[in-house]
Design a protein that fits this description.
By secondary structure, the chain is of the alpha/beta class. Helices cover 36% and strands 22% of the residues. The chain contains 18 helices and 23 strands. Strands 13-12-14-15-23-22-21-18-19 form a nine-stranded mixed sheet, with helices on both faces. A seven-stranded parallel sheet has the order 5-2-6-1-7-10-11, with helices on both faces. A three-stranded mixed sheet has the order 16-17-20, covered by helices on one side. Helix 4 packs across helix 5. The longest helix is centred in the N-terminal third of the chain and has 18 residues. Bound molecules: glutamine.
């Protein structure tokens, strides 16, 4: 569409958690809906190489891309909004930047120069931003800078933005997200924090072009004028961003505020097109007017921090809307579930999802939960560790292999129904031993999964070390638990189902990563439908 790629930076001021990811994704959606090809990138100022080794309590879920990158959960929002895959290039951390610069230094690439934050670190950041522009597929690259302006660790990123604005002139703009708090004692919205945060950016040499003001109340004309005047932006570039009922309303709210038009004008791009949001609005209509309701228990060990299971809860929103059903997710701590109380704690759930996870905490509760779902014939979806627990439970309680376990928990386990593959056994570096990213899978005709996907050849994303141990496959299949999805190249079991059950599916992969507004994930759609059907039958 245009000759050169345009760059939009999204920064945040005043406080964290303003929702830069959602604003970035919403802006991208509006530009995409006008026919522009857009991608979004997140720059994270922390020192970890990637969020793969971070505890979910720190930053929420680790999102995995097709190419096997372990990334920030904001990339999930980008994919869910744009319905386009992201990759390793879409998430860069300070750790990765420094690692790359230090590697270059060791290889002598700086020819004896002193290696410094400016220009070497900033050049590396610039390169990572432009990698996406140079691919040639994108008219617009949106780069979200993690953290808050003023943080020591985001300084090199803001400096990079300054340099790029200087170099790229009109091809580069900055959208700054700020907070306009409401002081109830004064009964007023206050613009001072916004002014200060813009001042902070100005001190670093960056004049924002657009201000997105997060607020709980209407920003009237006077306030807009005041902000525009004090922050040196045009009136129409002061955008009100009110709290929304759902994140999926934000693109519509931003369209009303004309964020997309203001941005295009500032970038010198045509604004004649109107965003085609038909699909999006259809989805919203279904989301807001559900015909029925179901309650699904999500059993996991990080339930105190809902962001730990972000993609799963969003996939339920998409799968629910596709069925015109409201899915109430009941968050249940796996550590709370025991053989004694499982029935009491889980009774009344219309469906059960056992979540992914690592380590021993809560695993006994997950296994008991599977037992309850199997015996009570409650529709069940087990994801990754959830699938592994389903296999362990079946081995113990149906096959009579009482010592069955995963070698993740009991290394010298006598009945390792879940085990490491031979080639993984000698690797000790935690960052590099996982099966990550997209793998092919073939589904058994006539199975619940084949029916759900309406195809027998799929590709799904993985993030795990341990696998179903094929030494036991025959015992399972001759006793009612079938492998209905396998990897065509390695023969690894990717899906298990129980024959004598209304809907019991365990998936070694993570379907939730690929659910989007435009493409609700078939497994979630089918699971919600099975839950609904089963609920109907019980009545
Ligand atoms: N801990 C299990 C493994 O590594 C499952 C991982 C997961 O649930 N993502 O195989």
């Amino acid at each position: 569409m245009s000759n050169s790629t345009k760059y939009i930076f999204v920064t945040g001021g005043v406080t964290s958690s303003l929702g830069k990811g959602i604003i970035s994704a919403s802006l991208a959606k509006l530009l995409q809906a006008r026919g522009y090809s857009v991608t979004i990138q997140k720059l994270d100022p922390y020192i970890n190489i990637d969020p793969g080794t971070l505890n979910p309590y720190e930053h929420g879920e680790c999102y995995v891309t097709d190419d096997g990158a372990e990334t920030d959960l904001d990339l999930g929002h980008y994919e869910r909004f744009l319905n386009a895959p992201t990759s390793q290039a879409n998430n860069v951390t300070t750790g990765r930047i420094y690692q790359s610069v230090i590697d270059k230094e060791r290889r002598g690439e700086f020819l004896g120069k002193t290696v410094q934050v400016i220009p070497h670190i900033t050049n590396e950041i610039k390169e990572r931003i432009q990698i996406l522009g140079k691919v040639g597929t994108y008219d617009i690259v949106i780069t979200e800078i993690g953290g808050t302006v003023g943080d020591i660790e985001s300084l090199p990123y803001v400096e990079t933005v300054r340099q790029m604005k200087w170099e790229f002139d009109n091809d580069c703009i900055v959208v700054h997200l700020t907070l306009v708090p409401y002081l109830s004692a004064a009964g007023e919205l206050k613009t001072k924090p916004t002014q200060h945060s813009v001042k902070q950016l100005l001190e670093l040499g960056v004049q924002p072009d657009v201000l997105c003001c997060r607020t709980e109340h209407e920003l009237d004309l006077n306030l807009r004028r005041k902000i525009a005047q004090f922050c040196n932006v045009s009136m129409n570039a002061v955008i009100e961003s009110r709290d929304a009922e759902t994140i999926y309303d934000v693109p519509i709210l931003m369209q009303v505020e004309e964020l997309d038009r203001v941005v295009l004008e500032k970038l010198g791009l045509p604004t004649k097109s109107t965003p085609d949001l038909k699909n999006w609005k259809n989805f919203l209509n279904k989301l807001k007017a559900p015909k029925k309701e179901v309650t699904i228990g999500l059993i996991g060990k990080y339930v105190e921090l809902k962001d730990s299971y972000k993609s799963i809860s969003e996939a339920f929103i998409h799968g629910g809307a596709a069925n015109e059903v409201k899915v109430n997710v009941k968050w249940i701590h796996s550590q709370k579930i025991t053989a004694k109380n499982a029935h009491k704690e889980l009774e009344g759930l219309d469906g059960i999802l056992v979540a992914p996870g690592f380590g021993s905490r809560g695993i006994a509760g997950k296994i008991e939960t599977v037992r309850y779902a199997r015996e009570s014939k409650t529709p069940f979806l087990g994801i990754c560790l959830g699938m592994q627990c389903a296999v362990i439970e079946y081995a113990r309680n149906v096959l009579g292999l009482k010592e069955a376990h995963t070698t993740e928990i009991v290394e010298d386990c006598k009945v390792p129904v879940i085990d490491l593959m031979e080639e993984q056994k000698n690797i000790s570096n935690k960052g590099g031993t996982m099966r990550l990213g997209a793998y092919k899978c073939h589904l058994t005709p006539g199975s619940h999964v084949a029916e759900a996907y309406a195809t027998e050849k799929i590709s799904e994303r993985h993030r795990h070390r341990y696998e179903f141990n094929n030494d036991y496959l025959e015992q399972f299949t001759s006793n009612g638990m079938n492998a209905t999805g396998t990897n065509p190249d390695t023969g690894l079991v990717e899906v298990v189902e129980i024959e004598d059950h209304p809907w019991f599916v365990g998936a070694q992969f993570h379907p939730e990563y690929k659910s989007t507004v435009d493409n609700p994930h078939p497994l979630f759609v089918a699971f919600v439908k099975a839950v609904l059907d089963n609920k109907g039958k019980k009545k």
